[in-house]
Amino acid sequence: xxxxxxxxxxxxxxxxxxxxxxxxxxxxxxxxxxxxxxxxxxxxxxxxxxxxxxxxxxxxxxxxxxxxxxxxxxxxxxxxxxxxxxxxxxxxxxxxxxxxxxxxxxxxxxxxxxxxxxxxxxxxxxxxxxxxxxxxxxxxxxxxxxxxxxxxxxxxxxxxxxxxxxxxxxxxxxxxxxxxxxxxxxxxxxxxxxxxxxxxxxxxxxxxxxxxxxxxxxxxxxxxxxxxxxxxxxxxxxxxxxxxxxxxxxxxxxxxxxxxxxxxxxxxxxxxxxxxxxxxxxxxxxxxxxxxxxxxxxxxxxxxxxxxxxxxxxxxxxxxxxxxxxxxxxxxxxxxxxxxxxxxxxxxxxxxxxxxxxxxxxxxxxxxxxxxxxxxxxxxxxxxxxxxxxxxxxxxxxxxxxxxxxxxxxxxxxxxxxxxxxxxxxxxxxxxxxxxxxxxxxxxx
Length: 445
Description:
The protein is of the alpha/beta class. Helix content is 36%, strand content 14%. It folds into 3 domains: 4-270, Type I PLP-dependent aspartate aminotransferase-like (Major domain) (Aspartate Aminotransferase, domain 2), CATH 3.40.640.10; 273-359, Aspartate Aminotransferase, domain 1 (Alpha-Beta Complex), CATH 3.90.1150; 383-443, Molybdopterin biosynthesis moea protein, domain 2 (Alpha-Beta Complex). It has helices at residues 4-15, 53-65, 76-90, 108-117, 139-147, 170-179, 215-218, 236-249, 256-270, 273-293, 317-326, 349-359, 383-388, 426-434; strands at 69-73, 99-103, 120-124, 155-159, 184-187, 210-213, 226-230, 298-299, 305-309, 333-334, 338-342, 391-395, 408-410, 415-418, 439-443. Strand 2 (99-103), helix 4 (108-117) and strand 3 (120-124) form a beta-alpha-beta unit. The longest helix is centred in the middle third of the chain and has 21 residues, at 273-293. The relative contact order is 0.12.
C-alpha cells in the first residue's frame, strides 16, 4: 500500500529547498525530526480541505477499516469525540431534542463537547459499580432506557473497550439503537487494532454508525494521531460533513509528523500486522494463564490488555505498579483496585516475561472490596451553564451541596466523578475520597 504523505515529507526534507515558511525551525535539527515537520506547502495538501495526498492516505485507511469514510485527526480521539457528537446532533430529525444517551463512564471530552455543543447528556448507569471506569450496558437495559424516553436521542454514546478492557455487546446494542430510531456512536479510543483480529471485532464491523480510534494508543502512530470513522450504513450526511466537523475542533496547523505516522501505519497494517497481532494475543493469553496459576486475579479484558484485580490479589494497584517498576516495567494505569497494562506487537517477549518475573508468586489473601456508590447528583444547571459560570476551587471535603463546575476526574483515566451542573452529594464525596481527589471546581455562590 502506498504512503503518499510520508513519501512527500521525506522528499521535501531531501530537496534542500530554502524554507521561507513556517515552522520556525526551518528544518534544522533540534530534536532530530524537524526535517520532516512541514506546513501546508504546495503539494502537501490541507487536512480539512483534503483533495491530494492526505485524501489519498485517508482513502487507504478507509479501505483497511471497511468504513464509508475514515478521516485523520492530529488532536487525538478527543477531537474526534466532539466531531462525532456534532454530526449526530446536526443530523438528528428536525424537531427532536438535542439529547445524547451515554454510558456514565464517558471520558471528560464528552462533557466538554456537551458544553461546546449545548446538548443534554442522559446517563446510562451500570447495575453495579465496581469501578468508575466500567459501565456495562446490556441490550435489554438500553432498550428499556430508549423506550422510556419521549423521543429518540440524537445518538447513543458508549465507551468500548473501557479503560479496564471491558467490551460492550456492540452488535446487539447497535440493533437496539437502529430499531429505536437512533444511531450508535462508540468511543473506541483503545481499540483501533480490533479490526485486524480474526474475526474482526471493531465497532464498525459490529454495526456502529460513528466511531473514533486513538490510533496512537494501540498502533505505531505518534501521540495525537486518531481516526474518525463513518459506518457504511450510517446516514449519508455523516461522511459528507465529517471533515468540516473535525475542522471545528482542530488546529489549523496539524502536525505533519503525526499525519505522516498515520500514513505509514497504513502500509504497516496492510503488511504482516494481522499475523504479528495474533502472535501477541497468544503471548498475552499465555501470560494471563501463568499469572492466574501463580495466584494473581486476572480480570477479563480486551485481547491486548492485562488487567489485574489488585484487591482480589491482596494488594492495591498502586502497590503492584511500584513492584513492576522495580522489575523494569511501567504500567498504563493503577488505582486502588486495578492495575492496567497495555501491550502491542511492538512489545517483545522479553517485555512480557519481565511482568511475570516482577510479579512472581502471590499467596496473599484478598482485601475487602468496598461497594462504590453511584454519584447520581441532582442536575441543577446544564453542563454548558456550569462550565461557563464563574467558579472556584475548594477542598473536596468541603464540597457537599455545591454545584460542580469543571468535571472532576481522577486522571488518568479522566472519567468524571462529579459532572458539571450536578449538585455534589455524599455519594460523590465518597468517590472523591476513594480515588484520592483532593480539590473540586464548583460554581461560585
